[in-house]
Design brief:
single chain, 233 residues, alpha/beta, Rossmann fold, Dihydrodipicolinate Reductase, domain 2, 2 domains, 6-stranded parallel β-sheet, 10 strands, 23% strand, elongated, binds NADP nicotinamide-adenine-dinucleotide phosphate
């Protein structure tokens, strides 16, 4: 199996080292200079590649997907902050016959947190005296805000809390790997659920899990659904 890396930054390098450890061949590795407007993703550069994993930057994603679709390469897109283009991306993928998994958060722990958050909102949503709140904190280099993960949490709790939709408080500082909080507050007390990433290892592991799953499959998938299928939820 061969994996191509699109965006050879912090996540791209971590995916490379985990993939190598699991016996994948790795390459090509494309950074901005090699891939303006998706120019590095071609039939010839992707020949022999089973899956291209994109951890680049939000404004690069659509060009990368377009080029990936043209080159016929399956993709895992971990880059966040391009949600406004999701419908167009789905169409490109379905028209081309490639397979693509995207996700705001590939960590196993966060995907468990998604399950817990949806269930908590379902339960607390039945009790009108509780308001919900969301917050997230990340390192100062993170470009999108609120995080894609926080937006996913909002989507999960929204149906259960009509008229009580939470806002999202955002912190960008230092080197925080990622903290997400979902809380419920009443006059009498506060219930708080928190996920704190210790490092980026779990994110890269999930991306490799998705890469193995999508190789040879067609269609457009959210990692949460893929994770649920893999785990048998
Ligand atoms: N879904 C998840 O689980 C998850 C987890 C962690 C991070 N993320 C997201 O993944 C993205 C990358 O995160 P990171 O921490 O790895 O960032 P990073 O260290 O800044 O790396 C991003 C890399 O992408 C490169 N790049 C920019 N435009 C490109 C293009 N058109 N083609 C190829 N490469 C390009 C950059 O190259 P230059 O340095 O040359 O500009 C840089 O090396 C962000 O959107 C982040 O929010 C998602």
């Amino acid at each position: 199996m061969r994996i191509a890396i699109i965006g050879y930054g912090k996540m791209g390098k971590l995916v490379e080292s985990l993939a190598t450890r699991e016996g994948w061949d790795v390459g090509p590795r494309l950074d901005l200079a090699d891939n303006r407007e998706g120019s590095g993703i071609t039939l010839s550069s992707m020949s022999g590649v089973d899956v291209a994993v994109d951890f680049s930057q939000p404004d690069a994603v659509m060009a990368n997907i377009q080029a990936g679709a043209r080159a016929g390469v399956h993709m895992v897109v971990g880059t966040t902050g391009w949600g406004a283009h999701l419908d167009r991306a789905r169409q490109l993928v379905l028209d081309s016959g490639i397979g693509l998994v995207h996700g705001s958060n590939f960590s196993v722990g966060m995907n468990l947190f998604f399950e817990i958050a949806a269930e908590a909102a379902r339960i607390v949503g039945k009790v009108p005296q509780y308001d919900a709140f969301l917050s997230e904190a990340h390192h100062r280099a993170k470009k999108d805000a609120p995080s894609g993960t926080a937006l996913n949490l909002l989507e999960l709790v929204r149906p259960h809390l009509p008229g009580r939709e939470p806002g999202i408080a955002v912190t960008r500082a230092g080197h925080i790997p990622g903290i997400h909080v979902l809380g419920f507050d009443s006059e009498a007390d506060t219930i708080t659920l928190q996920h704190s990433a210790r490092n980026r290892q779990g994110l890269a592991e999930g991306a490799i899990l998705a890469a193995r799953w999508i190789a040879g499959r067609q269609g457009f998938y959210d990692f949460r659904a893929v994770f649920r299928e893999i785990m048998g939820f």
